[in-house]
Write a structure and sequence with these properties.
Elements lengths: L2 H8 L9 H6 L1 H8 L21 E4 L1 H19 L3 H10 L4 H10 L1 H7 L33 E2 L5 E2 L1 H13 L19 H7 L3 H18 L3 E3 L8 E4 L6 E3 L6 E3 L12 H13 L11 E3 L6 E3 L6 E3 L6 E3 L30 H45 L5 H22 L1 H7 L4 H25 L6 H22 L3
Antiparallel strand pairs: 1-5, 2-3, 4-5, 6-7, 8-9, 10-11
Pfam families: Ariadne, IBR, IBR_1, UBA_ARIH2_N
Keywords: Coiled coil, Metal-binding, Nucleus, Repeat, Transferase, Ubl conjugation pathway, Zinc, Zinc-finger
Catalytic activity: [E2 ubiquitin-conjugating enzyme]-S-ubiquitinyl-L-cysteine + [acceptor protein]-L-lysine = [E2 ubiquitin-conjugating enzyme]-L-cysteine + [acceptor protein]-N(6)-ubiquitinyl-L-lysine
Length: 489
C-alpha cells in the first residue's frame, strides 16, 4: 500500500476526500507516524507493546500486613534491632530497606539522629539519672524512677505521656507522634506508646491508624480510593500507571491515587485541576449546552457525545467546538484542537498579555470540559445500544455474540475519548517547540478519529460492521501511538 493510499484510507470516512495539497503539507508528520505501519489490522497490544501495561497485585488487609511484617523482620534480622525501631526507620526512610541497612552499618547514630528516631536500647533507667522530681507539664512530683522519656532526655510523668498519646491518636496521628519536649522532633516508637497507653479502645485505634499510615507511606502500596473498598494495591514500581480495582471497579493512577490521567503526569494534572477549581467562575459561560447553527442560526442542543453536528433544519455539518465546516476537519491536520498563540504577545501590554493568557486557558478548558460531557453522553449511548441489543436478541435477530461488536465499539470510544480529554492539560503546560508540534499533530489525528468513531457508534444501526471495526482499529492505533511517544514511563 502506498503512502498516499494509506492516508486516504485513514481520512474521515464521512468527509470529502482530502485534496493533495493538504496531504503534501503534512508529509513530515505523516512519515513519522507511519514509519512502522505495515497493516491496518490491529491486534490487542502485547504486554511489551502497550504503553499503559502495568503489573500490580490486589491485596486484602491481611496480605498487606504480612508483606509489611516481612520487610520489618528482614531489617530486624539484618541489624539486630527491635521491630518497633525497624518499623519506624522503614516508615521514615520510605521503605528503602537496602539504603537503610547500608546507612545504619556506616553510621548508626547519624541515621537515627537524621531520622528523629529513638533507639530503645538507650531507654533504660540509668539514662534517667538527674531528672527533676517535678513533671515539666503538670508539675506533679513523682519518684525519680517513675519518669519516662526518649533518647532526647525530655522526661515526663506517665499520666502526661498518656494524655499526650490520647490527644494525638484522637487527632489521627500515629507514626508522627513526637516527644512532648519544646521543639523536640524525636518520634515516639510504638513499643514506648504501648507501655504507657492502657485504654484498649485507643490501642486498637492506634493500631488501625498506624497500619493506614504505613500503607500510605509505602511507595509500592496504595489503598483503592473506591468508596468503602478495603483493597490494597501492590506494585513492583511506583509508576503513574492505570490501576483497576477488581472489587469495586474504580480506576485510578497508582502514583498519585487520583483519576487516571495519561498522558498528563501527576504534578501537571494537580496544577490543572487546581487551576480549573480556582477559575471555575470565569469559565462558567462555557457550560451552555446550546449553540446556533453557523449556517441557518437555529438553536441546537448537544444531546450526544460526538462533536460532528448536523443541523436538523438545514442539514449543515459542522464542528461543535469551533463551529467550522466539518469537511475541513477531514484534512490531515485537525486545526480545531491546536491553540494559535499571538506571535507578538511578548511586546504587548500587561493587560493584553493577561487577556491572552485567559484566552489560552479558556481554549483548553473548553475542550477539556467538552470531552468530559461527551463521555457522559456516550455512556447514555452505550446504555441505548445495550437496550437495542436486548430487543434484537428477543426478536431472534441474532445472538448476544453477534451484536457484541457494538458494545466493544462504544467501550473503545469511551477509552479513546478519555485519553483525548487528558491531552488538553498536557498541551496547555507544554513548552513551545518541535515536541509540542508533534504532540499537537498526534492529538489532532486522535481527535479526528475519535469523532469519526463517535459518529459511527451513534449511527450503529446503519453502520456496516466491517467499517465500524476498521474505525475502531484506526482510533486505537492513534491513541496507542500518542501514548507511546508521550506517556511518562
Amino acid at each position: 500500500m502506498s503512502q498516499t493510499d494509506m492516508k486516504r484510507q485513514l481520512s474521515d470516512p464521512a468527509s470529502d476526500a482530502t485534496d493533495s495539497e493538504d496531504m503534501e503539507e503534512d508529509d513530515e508528520y505523516a512519515n513519522y507516524y507511519y514509519d512502522n505501519t505495515d497493516d491496518l489490522d490491529i491486534d490487542k497490544p502485547k504486554k511489551t507493546d502497550d504503553p499503559e501495561y502495568f503489573e500490580y497485585t490486589i491485596l486484602q488487609t491481611e496480605d498487606a500486613e504480612r508483606l509489611l511484617n516481612e520487610e520489618v523482620e528482614r531489617l530486624c534480622s539484618e541489624l539486630k534491632m527491635s521491630p518497633s525501631l525497624a518499623k519506624m526507620l522503614l516508615h521514615v526512610g520510605q521503605w528503602q530497606g537496602e539504603d537503610i541497612i547500608e546507612r545504619y552499618q556506616q553510621d548508626q547514630r547519624k541515621l537515627l539522629t537524621e531520622s528523629n528516631v529513638s533507639c530503645p536500647k538507650e531507654m533504660k533507667e540509668d539514662s534517667l539519672v538527674g531528672s527533676s522530681p517535678g513533671c515539666p507539664v503538670c508539675a506533679e512530683c513523682y519518684p525519680r524512677d517513675k519518669f519516662m522519656g526518649l533518647t532526647c532526655g525530655h522526661l515526663f510523668c506517665p499520666h502526661c505521656w498518656d494524655m499526650h498519646f490520647r490527644f494525638q491518636i484522637e487527632q489521627g496521628i500515629t507514626m508522627g507522634i513526637e516527644c512532648m519536649g519544646q521543639k523536640c522532633k524525636i518520634l515516639v516508637p510504638e513499643d514506648f506508646l504501648y507501655s504507657v497507653l492502657k485504654d484498649s479502645k485507643l490501642r486498637d485505634r492506634f493500631s488501625k491508624l498506624c497500619f493506614m499510615d504505613l500503607i500510605k507511606g509505602h511507595p509500592k502500596l496504595r489503598f483503592c480510593p473506591g468508596p468503602n473498598c478495603s483493597v490494597i494495591i501492590h506494585a513492583k514500581e511506583p509508576r503513574a500507571k492505570k490501576v483497576e480495582c477488581s472489587v469495586c471497579k474504580s480506576t485510578f493512577c497508582f502514583r498519585c491515587g487520583i483519576e487516571y490521567h495519561a498522558p498528563t503526569d501527576c504534578d501537571v494534572i494537580k496544577k490543572w485541576l487546581t487551576k480549573c477549581a480556582d477559575d471555575s467562575e470565569t469559565a462558567n459561560y462555557i457550560s451552555a449546552h446550546t449553540k446556533d447553527c453557523p449556517s441557518c442560526h437555529v438553536c441546537i442542543e448537544k444531546s450526544a457525545g460526538c462533536n460532528h453536528m448536523q443541523c436538523s433544519k438545514c442539514k449543515f455539518d459542522f464542528c461543535w467546538m469551533c463551529l467550522g465546516d466539518w469537511k475541513s476537519h477531514g484534512s490531515e491536520y485537525y486545526e480545531c484542537s491546536r491553540y494559535k498563540e499571538n506571535p507578538n504577545i511578548a511586546n504587548e501590554s500587561v493587560l493584553v498579555q493577561a487577556r491572552e493568557a485567559l484566552k489560552k486557558y479558556l481554549f483548553y478548558f473548553e475542550r477539556w470540559e467538552n470531552h468530559a460531557k461527551s463521555l457522559q453522553l456516550e455512556e447514555q449511548t452505550l446504555q441505548k445500544i445495550t437496550s437495542r441489543i436486548n430487543v434484537k436478541v428477543m426478536e431472534n435477530e441474532g445472538t448476544w455474540i453477534d451484536w457484541q461488536y457494538l458494545q466493544n465499539a462504544a467501550a473503545l470510544l469511551k477509552k479513546c475519548r478519555y485519553t483525548l480529554q487528558y491531552t488538553y492539560p498536557y498541551a496547555y503546560y507544554m513548552d513551545k517547540g518541535g515536541r509540542k508540534q508533534l504532540f499537537e499533530y498526534q492529538q489532532a489525528q486522535l481527535e479526528a478519529e475519535v469523532e469519526n468513531l463517535s459518529w459511527k457508534v451513534e449511527r450503529a444501526e446503519i453502520t456496516h460492521r466491517g467499517d465500524l471495526e476498521n474505525q475502531m482499529d484506526i482510533a486505537e492505533k492513534r491513541r496507542q501511538t500518542l501514548l507511546k511517544d508521550f506517556l511518562e514511563v
